[in-house]
C-alpha cells in the first residue's frame, strides 16, 4: 500500500529543511546584490563575479547559482536602484503651477542623480558588453522624459524645441557633465540648470 502524503510534502508546502534552505538562498541572493552595490559605490565600475563573491562572503558557484550571468545580476541591481529612484521622484510637488514643478524637477533629479551616480557611471561603462544595460539605459531615458512631459502644458510639450531642450537639461548626462567635467558642486550644478530651465520657460 502506498504511503499517504504528509502535510509538509503536499504541493506548494515545504518542510523545515526546505524552509531553511530557501531562507539561506534568499539571504545569499540579497548579500550578493548588496555586495555588488557596495563595490560599485566604492568606485569599482566593473566588478567581476570573484570580487562580488569575496565581498558577499559566498562561494563563486553560489553567485552563479543565483545569477546565471552578470546580466542577471545587473538586472537585480537595477531593480533595487529603480525602486529607490522612484521613491524619491514620486514625492508630491510643493509648487502648484507647472513652471514651479518643472523647476522643482531640477533639484529632485539632482538628488536622485547624486544617489545613483556611482551605479549609473558603472552602467555607462559596461553598456558596450551588456545588452541588458543598453536596454535599461534607454528605458530610463524614456521614464525621465515621460515624467517631464507629465508636468508640461500641451503648448510646451508640443513644442519640439522647448521639449528637447528641457529633456536635455534635466538629463543624467547634463548633470554628470556639470559635476565631473566642469567640476561644479551639487548646489552649483543645480543653480546652473535652474537658471537655464527658467530662461526656457520664460
What does this molecule look like?
This protein has helices at 16-41, 49-56, 60-66, 70-89, 98-126, 131-151, 154-157, 160-169, 172-181, 186-201. It is built from 10 helices and no strands. α4 (70-89) runs parallel beside α6 and α5 (98-126) runs antiparallel to α6. The longest helix has 29 residues, at 98-126. It is elongated. By secondary structure, it is mainly alpha-helical. Mean pLDDT is 86; it is low at 1-12. It has 2 domains: 14-68, Arc Repressor Mutant, subunit A (Orthogonal Bundle), CATH 1.10.10; 75-201.
| Uncertain runs | 1-12
Computed structural class: mainly alpha
Beta-strand segment tally: 0
What's the pLDDT, averaged over the residues? 86
Order of helix and strand elements from N to C terminus: HHHHHHHHHH
**Helical content (DSSP H or I, runs of 4+):** over 70%
Structural domains: how many: 2
Sheet of most strands: none
Radius of gyration: 22 Å
Which of globular, elongated, flat, extended, rod-shaped describes the shape? elongated
The proportion of residues in beta strands is: under 5%
Distance separating the two termini: 85 Å
Number of helices: 10
Q: Oligomerization state of this entry?
A: single chain
Features:
single chain, 202 residues, mainly alpha, Arc Repressor Mutant, subunit A, disordered N terminus
Task: Write a compact overview of the structure shown.
By secondary structure, the chain is mostly helical. 75% of the residues lie in helices and 0% in strands.
